[in-house]
Amino acid sequence: MLECLLIAAKGLDELLKLEIQKILGEERAIALTPGQCRLTVTLEELYTLNLHTRLANRVLLVLASGTVKDAEDIYTLTQSVKWPEQFDVNSAFAVRFNGVNREIRNTQFGGLKIKDAVVDQFVELTGRRPDVSRQDPDVQIHGRLRREKLDICIDFSGTSLHQRGYREASGEAPLKEQVAAAVLMRSGWADNTDLCLLDPMCGSGTIAIEAALIASNTPPNLHRFHWGFEHFLGHDKALWQQVKARAVEAIDEPAAKIYAFDISTPVLDMARENAQASGMSAYIEFKQCDARQAQVKEDKGYIVSNPPYGERLGEYVGLLPLFDAFGKHLKTHFANWRVSLLSSDQQLLKAIKLRAHKRYAMNNGKLECVLANYELNEDNLASFDAVGTLPAEEFANRLVKNQKRLQKWLKRENIEAYRIYDADLPHYNFAIDVYGAWVIVQEYAAPKSLPEAVAKERLQQALLRIPTILKCPTQQVVVKQRVKQSGSSQYQKHSNSGKRVTVTEYGAKFYINPADYLDVGLFLDHRTTRQMFAAKAKQKHVLNLFCYTGSVSVHAALHGAKSVTSVDMSRTYINWAKDNFELNGIQGNHVFEQADCLEWLNGRAQTHLPKFDAIFIDPPSFSNSKRMDGTWDVQRDHVGLIKNALACLQPDGFIYFSNNLRKFSLDQEAIEALGVKAVNIGHKTLPEDFIRNPKIHHCWEISRL
């Protein structure tokens, strides 16, 4: 008897054990460890497993097993195998090593010790050295280490068994073949192939093809050209041909229809080509069709699919209407069917509003997914909403009301960027900003009284209504999570779309980036503040400290400032500010400085350079950026900041000092000790769309007595 290992993807090992027992017999003893099954077999059974397994990536013949504590133990264990009896010296080989322990921490090192032991033995016993070929070896030797136990194996499969050879073309993030087979098994259909199967979003056709292979009892690896055992000296060619012949004799036609639909004609053509290559095209009925309109003549069967899922929030928003409508379609046209959907996004699955009776975790490559099984029984056919329809309609009504209230003001003021909703309803805890044709939804942390799952459900319900009410494409609705910012996190990218669009504010134009950063490039709550400051900046030399993308600088320049100096720590934002100046056709004596604003201001205060007539300061609440020495806390450090700013200010000049720390309190006594007066103008700077949120920011006008 021989000992072998079958290697499977994460989450499939239990299912692989059941498959092995089905292939070889239920009485077979199998030892299960994460990612692999171990059992004793005959050579004939080893061939049979290679041919018939739909779930394993590799079948390995174990040549030696033992305890290893260091590199010498690896070498000694490998030398215990008589390698010239396993493969010819003219066969090139490669070593794969998997696993580490306390002493052996590097897989390359472990593989090197196995390679040295094999080569040394060949040289000692034959006087010749076999070639090592990493790219296209004849023989693959595997070392699999788990804690202190090492298995030395020969790969009987060769390349991974999931590579069936039929998928000549595929889309993005295709479903792996063995995962598709696992989905069909977990769905229950693989044990009920007398019922029809429908994949309404078939993509490259993998689920339908694997289903046809199962239903026709066709071994998934029957037409494989190369095997790992071909250069194994114990290979029995006659026995192998007998195993293949029996497998061919057992092939039969499927008992029920297999349907594969997709909305994309090019994708469907790709699926047809793959089915043709697999030899299964005669058993699959392909059709160009929207999943939300899919229907078949059978009144009972299985729907098994791997619907699209977005890894970015913007894609998630675009897919919500599809899942919502698909769920309604299932309830209307597929009563009594069973449905199995594989997705990496459980929130999208919730949008179909079906109760799953079983869930399985499994990976598609490195992507962690969940397979949800549903029965379209009486309970699921009854429409339900986890949060109820009334709260969702209440949100929709509030959004419509807000839109109607702001319309005249927006038209009168020539404003394209505004806030239309700001947690108006306590259980719909997010802000909604409109930037031209784009809508940005900023999700706040859910209140403690509201379970996170319910908060996610309500956000989902809102996202289903926002595109319709605000008349914008779902692709232009972007969701962001608003959390407490620290350090340089406000400068970090969230995406890499590079997309910029232009919005207008009081005649000025600004670039915004809807997706790549938490803040899009234009702070809406400072719209009125910018106007007030710019109106007073005419014919003045202006400093905009912590300038961000230069919106205050642009307005000041357009209002006739003699010069504007813009300073920010981020090179990205300095370049963005320059682009905004160019967008507005602004020329003249304007300066852009990329520097630590605190250091720059302190250094400027020590010089005799010309002073400014007007200074705008809107610092972050807190920062511990690596670009700064020490940390910045606006409550702790604001007096020192204003003191340095006064040293750079003309005697009759003024400062606008603003910040967004909700609990901020100006140190009035310390400020007055500097010989200035600070007038709180926060209430005057609130725009129409922020009146309901008076604590959005603070603002003072500071000037010398």
UniProtKB/TrEMBL annotation:
It is found in: Cytoplasm. GO terms for molecular function: 23S rRNA (guanine(2445)-N(2))-methyltransferase activity. It holds the Pfam family THUMP. SMART domains: THUMP. SUPFAM superfamilies: S-adenosyl-L-methionine-dependent methyltransferases. Keywords: Cytoplasm, Methyltransferase, RNA-binding, rRNA processing, S-adenosyl-L-methionine, Transferase. Its main location: cytoplasm. Its EC number is 2.1.1.173, 2.1.1.264. InterPro entries: 23SrRNA_methyltr_KL, DNA_methylase_N6_adenine_CS, RlmKL-like_Mtase, RlmKL-like_Mtase_CS, RlmL_1st, SAM-dep_methyl-trfase, SAM-dependent_MTases_sf, THUMP_dom. It catalyses: guanosine(2069) in 23S rRNA + S-adenosyl-L-methionine = N(2)-methylguanosine(2069) in 23S rRNA + S-adenosyl-L-homocysteine + H(+); guanosine(2445) in 23S rRNA + S-adenosyl-L-methionine = N(2)-methylguanosine(2445) in 23S rRNA + S-adenosyl-L-homocysteine + H(+). Residues 45-156 form the THUMP domain. CDD domains: AdoMet_MTases, THUMP_AdoMetMT. HAMAP family: 23SrRNA_methyltr_KL. Specifically methylates the guanine in position 2445 (m2G2445) and the guanine in position 2069 (m7G2069) of 23S rRNA. Belongs to the methyltransferase superfamily. RlmKL family. This is Ribosomal RNA large subunit methyltransferase K/L. It comes from Glaciecola siphonariae. The lineage of its organism: Bacteria, Pseudomonadati, Pseudomonadota, Gammaproteobacteria, Alteromonadales. The gene is rlmKL.
